[in-house]
Amino acid sequence: MGKNDFTGESPYNFEEKTLCVLLLDTSGSMEAKVGGVKLIDELNQGLQQFYKEIVNDDSVSQQLEISIITFDSDVKTVVEPALVDSFTLPTLKAWGSTNMTDGIREAIDKVNARKEWYKETNQPYKRPWIIMMTDGEPDYQDEIIALANTIKDDMENKKYVFLPMGVENANMSLLTQLAGNVNGKTFGPMKIKGTKFFSFFQWLSASMGTIVKAKEGESVSLAPGSNDPGDWWEAFTI
Amino acid sequence: MHIKRINVIDFMRRICVIIFALCLLYPNIGKAEKNNNSNNPEIVFGNIRKEMLVKGCELLGVSDSVKSKITSISVDDFKAELRKEIEKDSTKRKATVLLQAPKIGPNVDGSRSKLDAFNKALKEISRFPFDSFDERIKMIANLLNQVIQKDNSINQLNTELETIKAGIENSNGTDSEKKDSLEKALSEKEQELALAEKENEELREKIYRQNTGKKKYDISDILYWILDIIFWILPLLLVIIAIGVIFIMQKNRRNRNKNNNLKELTSTDQPIEEKKIQSVDITRNNDVNSESKETALPADDTKKSLKKEEKTSDILEDLQKNIIVIDKGAFATDADDWVVVGASVQGNGHKATNTPCQDSHSYEYLGNGWGIAIVSDGAGSAKNAEKGSKIVSNRAMFHFKNLITHKQWVEKNVIPSDQEWEELAFRVLKQVRDDMNMVAQKTNEPLKSLNATAIVVIHTPDAILSTHVGDGRAGYRDAEGNWKPLITPHKGEEANQTIFLTSDFWDIPFFKLSDTRVPESKITHEKPYGFVLMSDGSEASSWEYNLKVPNEERFYDPNRPFPGFFNPISNTLINFRKQDVPLEERAEKWWSFIESGNSSFVKEQDDKTMIVGVLISE
Asked: I need a surface site. Which of A73, B78, B309, B539 has the fewest CB within 10 A?
């Protein structure tokens, strides 16, 4: 850019980190076919798309840390929090029941531990996100209420943003109980139409691109200009 | 008049607070009374359940805060609290058993299966003394059954009495023998009734003792009475104190107003007329144009300061010829030995959402090597951020210039002491905040809709005075050409959080954020050869703030202006002067440099502002 008289060098600063925990339901029911396509296959394909879009963005790939936690009969951390260039995406398999409560606990623990690590290593960071996607009923419904209170309190105290997402036969009224507030407004749950995972993850990567650059309290229109969420999400009432 | 009205509102607010306090106290009084009413079987059994739960909590290591939520009637609060604790501390999950504590009533056998299950579950994880509770439950159930029976027989006696009384009235005067026998039967029944009532009373007394282990009326009852009285007297005392405080405050305020009126004649504490603020905040650009600021000076000034003002504006008029402001939001100036440029440019994020640039800046040269540079960053989250930052850059310029003129710092080339600067900077920034508040009130918007930061750098021949609230960066160039930082940005826990001039920290003594005083005011006692100030949108391109320790997962903020960025800029600015490049061209070039002069500026989502000045040294 020699045309400008002032141009010199720029320093190499590391980017401020934003953690996004994807908490995914891989219970047996994800084997179900919708319109001839298995939900789990669609989910895997959507994840690949998400991964590719983040990797291809020079700036976002240096800011967005991803962690993937799955819950079926067990809870597994498939991907520990890291920038996209330091892991490869596994293929998820569906089996077993829906241990959602332990999954959520694990995600919250993961977020807290990462924040501690940011503080220890003196890294600036922004508010982490937990995005939960489920298609069924959790195993221990009675524990959900206590957990919902924890989530609401934590969101009130700006500890993280929790976004519940429902697929197909998900219990939306239960997901509504789990939704907390962002800037005084209930955030989520959203319902994904059929097998529109692909569109959802496209929207998510675009939104995360906006979020990692936003300032505190700024109202970001999620994924401006791209993919209208109307393409994949379904309005619902309870 | 004005002051009086505020006090009435104040007074009303206080009254509301007192009424609120009374409402808060009321349930306590109610509780004190309820505790006395121990004959109610619900409370009697509730007390046993309460003791069982307390015992269970002790055995399972549940915290005192949870225990305090157990009441004799309802355990809902306790259960909610316990759930929260279990949620937080997974080692206490065995305490889930306590959530199963059953309700018990006089029909003990009916609750038997639930009680047994609870006992069994508890015994599995702790040594729970169930038998002693069980014994008491049975004993009280027995006593209560007796009371119920006695109650029934009393009712029966009452109806019999009624019948006899009716009989006496009917046989009025006809058969004296029959009447006598009826009257005899009446007195017998009455005696029987009195006895039954007495026995019943004794039974209740027994239950009460079983339940609490004490006599019916003892010291604790008297204590309740005393507490009740205190609960009523306390609010009354509060009212009296509040009225006293208001009275004293009113008196003080009146005195202070008197003093202020005197001070206004000699000092810079000028009240700003509303008209003037509006002309500044709405119609004006954010740039260096001093004329209307001169007109914004208060008219009711003393003759002495008016004269001084005229003198300064004469000098300023000469200086203004050397400044060019372009509409996009940039300026360039030659001011004695200083070459200064500045620009505010909309970030890419705001371009995409069609939000105007929310940064503002202003610069004014005061002569004698003195100049004021100001940068303000309007919060992206605030509705009128653009207006907020404009008010800051204009009003801070106005007030700081006023301060310097009245103190005659430029003419005498005097640098204040560190402490004096800290106090004055605080006061002036507070005035700017008050101006913002006035605009907010005039336009019926909340103050926080104007949220904006402020960085003020005053360069003098021998030192730099700086003060700021919020994030952004500022620095200076020393005699050897090294660039050094002037301020530490105020940041919250998350990287994108900061504080604003409009935030409520003014009344908190020694308020700090990210270990830095708010506002952070200091004097750097070194001759400046250059200065820079910027909003945080420009820092990624120019400042070192998040570096990694090599071979370690550890990061640090050196808060260092990047020489590779600033040295070419100072050289270019000096060359501009030497080659006599027109000011308009300089402003244009500076604006397009900030707009897209390097890859970080191109990438930047946030608005970008930067003012740089360098000193031409022979």
From this structure: A73
- Smallest CA–CA separation between B261 and chain A, in Å? 42
What is the span of the domain harbouring residue B123? Answer: 41-128
Q: Tokens 């039967």 sit at which residue?
A: B185
pLDDT at A68 over 90: yes
Q: For the CA atoms of A57, A62, A64, A65, what is the dihedral angle to 10 degrees?
A: 130
pLDDT of the residue at B214: 52
Closest CA to B363 of B449, B289, B474: B289
* Chain mean pLDDT for chain B: 80
pLDDT in tens, B13-35: 777 677 766 666 655 544 444 44
Strands A190-192 and A161-167: parallel
Predicted pLDDT of residue B233: 82
> What percent of chain B is predicted at pLDDT more than 90?
40
Closest CB to B555 among A121, A147, A215 = A121
Nearest to B589 among A4, A125, A127 (CB): A4
Which among B553, B562, B603 has the least Cβ separation from residue A11?
B562
Q: Which helix (H) or strand (E) holds B76?
A: helix B76-88
- Which residue type occupies B78? F
The C-alpha R_g of chain B, in whole angstroms, comes to: 40
The residue with tokens 């006992």 is B119
Q: What pLDDT, on the 0 to 100 scale, is given for residue B520?
A: 96
**What is the rounded distance in angstroms from the CA atom of residue B228 to the CA atom of residue B222?**
10
pLDDT surpassing 80 at residue A121: yes
pTM strictly above 0.90: no
How many CB atoms neighbour CB B237 within 10 A?
Answer: 10
ipTM of the complex: 0.81
Name the pLDDT band for A221 (thresholds 50, 70, 90). Answer: low
Cα–Cα distance measured from residue B135 to residue B140, given in angstroms and rounded to the nearest whole number? 9
Q: Which of B103, B128, B153 is the last residue of a domain?
A: B128
What pLDDT does A233 receive? 52
CATH number of A28-143+164-215+223-234: 3.40.50
pLDDT digits (tens, 9 = 90+) for B189-211: 888 888 888 888 887 777 767 66
Query: Is B266 inside a domain boundary?
Result: no
**HEC letters along A46-69:** HHHHHHHHHHCCCCHHHCEEEEEE
- Is B263 a domain residue? no
Going A208 to A212 to A213 to A219, the CA torsion angle's sign is positive
Same domain, B243 and B287: no
Residues 526-555 of chain B whose Cβ lies under 8 A from any Cβ of chain A = 540-548, 553-555
> Could you tell me which residues come within 8 angstroms of residue B462 by beta carbon, excluding any fewer than 6 positions away?
B413, B415, B525, B527
Asked whether residue B103 is domain-assigned, the answer is: yes
- Decide which of B128, B145, B163 is a domain's last residue: B128
Kindly list the residues from chain B whose CB atom is less than 8 angstroms away from the CB atom of residue A15.
546
Indicate yes or no: CB of A127 within 8 angstroms of CB of B572.
no
Domain-embedded: residue B96: yes
Which of A4, A18, A129 to mutate against chain B (most B CBs within 10 Å)? A4
The whole-chain average pLDDT of chain A stands at: 83
* Separate counts of helices (H) and strands (E) for chain B: 19, 18
Contact between chains at B606 and A215 (C-beta distance less than 8 A): yes
B415 and B436 housed in the same domain: yes
8 Å CB contact between B466 and B516: no
Asked if residue B532 and residue B418 are part of one domain, the reply reads yes
Nearest CB to A150; choose among B87, B381, B605: B87
Average pLDDT over residues B114-119: 82
Q: Which pLDDT band, with edges at 50, 70 and 90, does B9 fall under?
A: low
Q: Is the model more confident about B377 or about A53?
A: B377
Could you say which residues from 430 to 459 on chain B have a Cβ atom under 8 Å away from some Cβ of chain A?
none
Identify the closest residue of chain B to A221 by CA–CA distance. B353
Cis peptide before B550 (omega within 30 of 0): no
